[in-house]
Design brief:
This protein is an alpha+beta fold. It contains two helices and seven strands; from the N terminus they run αβββββββα. The longest helix has about 50 residues.
Amino acid sequence: MRLSRHAGGCRRHAQGFTLIEVMIAVAIVGILAAIAFPAYQEQVARSRRSEAQSVLLEDAQYMQRYYAANNTYDAAGVPAELTYATAPRNSSAGAVAYSISVAASSATGFTLLATPTNAMSADRCGAFSYTDQNVKGVIPNARGLSVSDCWR
């Protein structure tokens, strides 16, 4: 291996990166980010959906316990107050992904609804419903997604 010598007889070593090498590295990072960021966003949305479904099921259990104690799902036409009204549980206003409510209630049945809010308001699955008969639903489902696509 020969090293070049310049005036004064010192050895000369290449230092740093060329502009082409830097541009290639930036392009690779950009491509990776373009792939990773949407995947990350979908994973966060899936996690929030899962949390909302979990809260719906916990509230449904509460409604069943309320029925066992009172022999009705709503007392004097007023539905029972839910244990959790938001998903994630007990979150502050800006962090609420879903609002949980009793959409319909009678002495013998109920329907719970998880409505997306804030960052989840444009979610592809829309709102989730759950009834006293253990029927899971997605409302509205304008994108043609099945219940099994959104309820996991």
